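User: My advisor asked me to double-check a structure prediction for Glutamate receptor ionotropic, kainate 2 isoform X1 before group meeting. I don't want to rely on an old file, so could you generate it fresh from this sequence?
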Amino acid sequence: MYMCREFFFITLLKISIEFMDERKTEVKVGAIFFKNEEALELSFDAAFQQINNIKLFELHFITFKRYMPNDDSYVLQQLTCELISNGVAALFGPTSKASNDIVALIANSTGIPHLQYDWNIETTIEQLQLNHRMSVNVAPTLSAISKAYWDIIKINYDWKTFTIFYQSEQGLTRLQDLMGIHTVNKDAIKLKRITDYSQDIRVLWKEAAEALHEQRFILDCDPETLVDLLNTAKDFKLLGPFKQWFLTHLDSHSSSLKLIYNEQFKANITGVRLKLNDLNPYERRKTRITLIDQIFGNQTMLPILMYDAVILYANAARNIIISLKEYQHPYKRCDLGRYGRSPWLVGRLIVKEMKELSEDDVEPLFKTENMKIDENGQRSIFNLEIYKPTVNEPLAIWKSDGLVTPIRIKQEFQAAAVIPDFSQVRRTYIVVTHFEEPYFMLKADHENFRGMEKYEGYAVDLIQKLSELMDFEYDFMIVGGNGKFNQITKEWDGIIRKLIDHQAQIGISDLTITQLRRKYVDFTVPFMQLGISILFYKRDAEPKNMFAFLQPFAKEVWIYLILTQLIITLMFVFMARISNHEWENPHPTNLEPIELENKWYTSNSAWLMIGSIMQQGCDILPRGGPMRMLVGMWWFFALMILSTYTANLAAFLTSNKMQSTIKSLKDLIEQDYVKFGTFHGGSTSQFFSESNNTDYHKAWNQMKSFQPSAFTSSNKEGVERVRKGQGNYAFLMETTSLSYNIERDCHLQQIGHQIGEKHYGLAVPLGADYRTNLSVSLLQLSEKGELYKLKNKWWKNHNNTCNDNKEADLDGDELSIIELGGVFMVLGGGIVIAIVIGCCEFLWNVQRVAVEERVTPCEAFKAELIFALKFWIKRKPIRISSGSSTSRRSSRSTSRRSSGQSKQSKRSKISKRSKHSKRSHSRSHSGPKFSERD
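Assistant: Sure, here is a fresh prediction for Glutamate receptor ionotropic, kainate 2 isoform X1 from the sequence you gave:
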């Protein structure tokens, strides 16, 4: 029973399907093909076959095909009218090989929908609305494609400079938006037409390698010629790991580029193609791959777009026809106007429906993503896939909103990749530099090394650390300098030239980041900060003199001063002896002395002179007017001499501590005896020449006016001129090189503060994709302190012999012990002389005591020395004691006292007698004689 029921339902279903097939409305469609377009024809047939196989699809399509032998407008018109006479409800084609739009015009006049699937030179909007109202093109418009390329090149890749190679006018139209990219250099975009070099394509690539100085190329050519063009470009080293190519033809992947790709073909090539809808993972896979499956698998644009055009028309026609009560077939004539008939109305409705359909409204699905037709019958919305044609690896997706979304490559795809990506292997960078201490130098024993091992310096260590972080190899290229810009030829030399020519990938040295250089090369983040300062010569300090206190006066002044002291002393003695006021009574208690005493003998006079000049005074002073006048003049002389000496002593003892009068750039430009200059054509000279600061501009004008020229051809020459000039030349240079030279030469110094702020960076060609990685690596080295260690290693002179001099320079105005050593020597000498004189006086007193007390000299010396060492005894006996008995000591004391008194009385009598005689003598000569009574 159950088997019978199942059989009944199956039979009923078959009958209903056959009945529906019989009720399907037949719709005729026509297509025009050129010769050798078998893939298009297969796609056309496969699409309608797939639609006709859909059981529930209400329409059944019958196809008519015509073939064009050549591009003949008359033949094309005849074939089109022949298809219309067969009653076709749609016209497909032809491709862009047709040079005119006769099919679109016939379709517009008859009302037959016209489906296009290839690029054509676009007409204006007015023409589309007037003469192409029945035409619908599922191929992206050239303007939309051009905008997509602009988004990819400008926004995603950020290419500022590139060269465009194009093969046809249509290809140039696809690139029209790229012409409008505003770049910093007017020569950034260069155009080359490939067909102009058809006789020898090698000439084109030679120009690109030697004259264009380019590393980014945009190539628009047919897939058939792509391999030959790139093979020839490889001979001129245009396909290296640092050259980048962008292929604009949507069928570049269909070329045989994958077959010639090998390890020597390390090219960074990317292309674009229409993004296809992802396959349904649950769809049943075919066990037998047909020819049309291979065509669709190759993702060739025209067959895929032909398929989408068929799907679009079939779904729109079904929606319109089944909605009508009665289907009215199209007219079978091209010349409807002659018979007064209007165009086919159903055709207009079908075209309108095609403009409203989206990819979610059709069955089966479109091959390409994001299918949408605008009101003018053009496809302005679509998706592009950015990929590597060498390994067929997708990279990103461009959408009509301008966004570029990267694609994450699945590990399964990477593991299944048959062709390895040789462009991702470890790169070898050419690092261009020049000899400059301490950045790049030859080792002292470089003859014993080969290759890069014979070089050393800051740049060598820095590039080595970067290579370890970024995993790349490198070779050095040595040039003559950083690079100067020729204002006449507008050309660079040195490091900048090699980077512009793309002969090197990284430039490293004392390369300052400037606005002018950034127009031609890119820079990484700075790896060193610096400024500008003045390098000047530092003279050796004069040797310190132990008798520096004598320098305020010349030798003859000291001689004259000693002679003056001697002469004034003798004159003072003479004047005191002739002055009556300087003779005085030696015994003031005796009112009538027999003699007068004069205290101003030679020793006392010399003591007064010395005390005066030392400003210490004296315990005896003159009494008479002439003597006081003489002493006053001497005191005035001593005051002037002492004041002059004090002032000159301070000046002479601090003369070695005084710095140069040039302490800043302003001091330098306000004097005329020291010339100054800078490295000609370098960033320092550019700083002064372009500055708006008054002092900097004045300094620049002075540097230009010096004869002979104050400019140098290198920093090394400038440092040498400072050494040889010995204070007659100053060199303006960057503080890094300045500090390096100061650290190694004690005769060089920095004067003034730092001027401005500059930075050193690594230079790379414009738009280099590895610049960001270099910047990130430099930041990592900075954060780890590696950059500081490198600078300390190559700038700090650990064998510096100038430290003592530097410490002496930092002492200020203090006087050292050497300069005041003579004062201590004079003090010591005076002490020694005083001690010698004291010892002699002590021995003389011992001899006198021995004679007077009738003892041996040894006893007298012993007794006097013992008493002198007893510091606690404050009274000294007149005579020494033997220590035997007190009576003897007292008797000796009594006899000594008596003898002393007798001697004193005897001396007093003689004194009285002499004074009396002197007084009488004076009276007899000086005044009138008086009687004894008076």
